[in-house]
Write a structure and sequence with these properties.
Elements (H helix, E strand, L loop, with lengths): L1 H7 L25 E2 L6 E2 L8 E5 H7 L4 H5 L35 E5 L2 E2 L20 E7 L4 H4 L6 E7 L5 E9 L8 E10 L7 E12 L2 E2 L10 E2 L4 E2 L11 E3 L5 E2 L12 E3 L6 E3 L6 E3 L2 E15 L2 E17 L18 E2 L8 H6 L6 E4 L9 E19 L2 E22 L1 H9 L11 H8 L2 E27 L2 E20 L1 H4 L12 E19 L2 E12 L3 E12 L5 E12 L3 H5 L3 E4 L22 E4 L8 E15 L2 E13 L7 H6 L1 H8 E3 L12 E5 L2
């Protein structure tokens, strides 16, 4: 029912206030005028020429959402955003994001009370929604239209503005619990809000909201639908023909693998026989989590002092600390994933666990090349800690008929990613060479001790993003026309963005199995902006909005973005609107300054060499080069929107919008799947080959692929 209500409103307006014709402005100074998302002109209503969906505090309480990402998941315009669940399988731990129109999370601008916050410190591409406590949200305004003319970068697809509480009186406490029928994935939450002071009577207010949330892990093996990745009867086999597992597979040549335990059924549920083959397959769902354990603490405090009838000072501080854990896999020890491409993992002929009879039957006489996972060590795990702070201090009021709002903002986001259960490639190779570690079954005490000595635990990386800025905007009704008042807004912003991503020496050494060879990144830039906006009533029920903004970045220069919007309301029930504008997305600091690094692709086919089907290049792991480019220019967009809203009765509206966004100069790294799927397109520019063999008509083997 809740989702139906949000959807029935057309994703345009969720506000109990009826659509009414514009009224004559009252000639008094008022501090209760608000800035509606998509405009810098303070006004007393939220119905504008732009498509805005409003989620009120009442809607939030009815939704049952316990975090900001869950709340936005109920918005139809928010598509495929990252969440705690998606975090299980991506390289951006602890991130939850918004993604309006499906154009990418970097094209959606997330604001707090109309102001920028520091982006997620791992990638610098978007604001992490996890640091915004639901208990502190007064309402959410979602502008589903480009807004670079108002806010600058990153607003090509729209804006999500979390309007936080500005004052509170009294004491409020609540607790929440959700428990699953079959165990795992339970949720608990507790909230306390307290405030004192009345702005009218006492001329001040102070308040604090504290929220604690704990989510239990949900294991894949605890649910029937995810218990196993191998369902031959349903043609599901994890998408792989072979893999490193335990008991270890033995590689005979490029395309042939065997396993001494195959006839006995391998070692279910962790490894299972691969149908039609002679090797065992690793069932990755036997280890991983569907949902990670999450512990989240948020504190939001605010203070307002109305020191004069027309002037206020205000300060707000938001702190968030999150803890996540991710179970990855038992590490893969094989030639495919050895980051330094050292000699592969072998078991010696003289080892006490050498399967002599099986090897002889397979025609093997020397050391055994292994595709192996050291199950005794258990799965590798990530421990992720994120910490965010957001401080705003400023003043607002009226001077000479101008409504002013000035603020200083300091926002910081940090991520610390550590791990346990990781394995040194060199130490594992040496341990296997002793013959005391049994890759096919239990080892003795000496072998177990040697295997335990191969592990490594410690920090992978820590990162920190800081955004500090000064903002000033003023607005005023400058002229009166027969249809109403002409209002103007002017403003300026000065901002500095900083990002540091520091990888540990161990993580960059290339010796830790299954870890990307990340490289440390640091960068900063300054941004200065000027903007102006005009709102003019053309005739009764017809008004137009004109806006323009100039942003200058210290790294790539300046950009100017205009916007025009028209709103026509012939009567109280109908509203028609249209808008046109341009936008941009600045390249992130990692986009610009990340050093080049090497990683492994997934198994791919080289179409130039895979001719007979027996060549090793029909399924091979290649090296890929990734990194930043300091010469990147911003992404650009042009967008327009036309919509109509019908409100047959007060409090219920139906809206339809048609929108179009043309996006150019898109920034991104190619995946290996994109390169090999479109090989004719990317081979010349993104594939580096070695020399061809003498007398061969086939080209040389692929040395690496450039994904940048």
């Amino acid at each position: 029912l809740r989702g139906a209500r949000l959807l029935a409103s057309g994703g345009l307006l969720l506000d109990p206030a009826p659509l009414v014709a514009a009224e004559e402005p009252v000639e008094t100074r008022k501090l209760d005028a608000v800035y509606v998302t998509g405009s810098n002109i303070a006004r007393t209503d939220i119905e504008t020429a732009l498509p805005i969906q409003v989620i009120t505090r009442e809607d939030i309480e009815r939704s049952g959402a316990i975090n900001a990402a869950a709340l936005l998941s109920q918005v139809s315009a928010n598509l495929i955003g990252t969440s705690d669940a998606v975090f299980i399988g991506n390289g951006r731990p602890g991130l939850s994001s918004a993604n309006l129109r499906g154009l990418g999370e970097g094209s959606t601008l997330v604001l707090l009370n109309g102001r920028r916050a520091a982006n997620y410190a791992r990638t610098g591409s978007t604001v992490n929604l996890n640091f915004i406590p639901v208990a502190a949200i007064e309402r959410v305004e979602i502008l589903k239209d480009g807004a670079s003319a108002i806010y600058g970068a990153d607003a090509m697809a729209g804006v999500v503005n979390f309007v936080l509480r500005e004052d509170y009186r009294g004491l409020y406490a609540s607790a929440y619990g959700a428990f699953t029928q079959h165990g795992g994935g339970n949720q608990q939450q507790a909230t306390l809000t307290a405030g004192y002071g009345d702005l009218t009577a006492d001329r001040f207010n102070v308040f604090l909201t504290a929220n604690y949330q704990n989510n239990d892990a949900l294991l894949a093996r605890d649910r029937p639908f995810s218990r196993t990745a191998y369902r031959p009867g349903e043609h599901i086999d994890n998408g792989r023909e072979r893999d490193a597992t335990f008991p270890a597979n033995i590689r005979i040549d490029e395309t042939t693998f065997v396993n001494p335990s195959f006839a006995a059924g391998c070692m279910p549920p962790f490894s299972v026989p691969v149908p039609g083959k002679q090797w065992c397959g690793y069932d990755h769902l036997s280890f991983i989590n569907l949902l990670p354990p999450v512990e989240r603490t948020n504190v939001f405090a605010g203070a307002t002092w109305q020191f004069a009838p027309d002037h206020r000072l205000f300060a707000q501080y938001l702190y968030s600390y999150d803890r996540y854990e991710r179970v990855r896999h038992v590490v893969n020890a094989s030639r495919d994933v050895d980051p330094q491409k050292q000699p592969s993992f072998f078991y010696p002929v003289a080892g006490p666990f050498y399967p002599a009879e099986f090897a002889a039957a397979q025609g093997i006489s020397g050391p055994l090349e292994l595709y192996y996972r050291p199950f005794l060590l258990g799965p590798a795990e990530d421990q992720v800690r994120t910490d965010a702070q957001h401080l705003v201090a400023g003043a607002e009021g009226w001077v000479g008929g101008w409504n002013y709002n000035a603020a200083f903002i300091y926002s910081q986001d940090t991520v610390n990613n550590s791990g346990s259960g990781n394995v040194s490639a060199r130490r594992l190779i040496d341990a296997l060479a002793t013959g005391l570690v049994n890759p096919f079954g239990p080892s003795g005490p000496e072998g177990d001790a040697l295997l335990a000595g191969t592990t490594w635990s410690g920090e992978f990386f820590h990162s920190k993003a800081v955004t500090s800025s000064l903002e000033l905007k003023v607005s005023k009704e400058i002229h009166r026309l027969p249809a109403g008042a002409v209002a103007v807004a002017l403003g300026a912003e000065a901002r500095r963005e900083e990002l540091d991503i520091v990888w540990s020496q161990e993580a960059t050494s290339g010796d830790i199995l299954n870890l990307p060879q990340g490289k440390s990144t640091t960068g900063s830039r300054t941004v200065e902006a000027l903007f102006a906006e005009l709102n003019a009533p053309i005739a009764a029920g017809l008004e137009a909005q004109f806006a323009v903004r100039y942003d200058h970045y210290s790294d790539f220069g300046g950009t100017t973005n205009p916007k025009v919007a028209v709103r026509w309301q012939p009567n109280a029930a109908w509203l028609v609107r249209a808008s046109y504008g341009t936008g941009f997305r600045a390249p992130t600091l990692p986009d610009l300054w990340t050093p080049e690094s090497l990683a492994d692709t997934t198994a791919q086919k080289d179409p130039r060499r895979c001719i007979t089907g027996k060549e090793p290049d029909c399924r091979a792991i290649f090296r890929a080069v990734t990194g930043g480019d300091p010469n990147l220019r911003p992404e650009r967009s042009r967008q327009w929107n036309v919509g109509v809203v019908w409100e047959p009765v007060s409090g219920y509206s139906i809206g339809v919008d048609y929108w179009k966004i043309n996006k150019t100069n898109t920034i991104g790294a190619l995946t290996d799947l994109q390169i090999f799927t479109n090989f004719d397109l990317f081979e010349a520019t993104h594939v580096v080959r070695g020399s061809a063999a003498p007398g061969s008509s086939a080209p040389g083997r692929i040395l690496r692929g450039n994904q940048v």
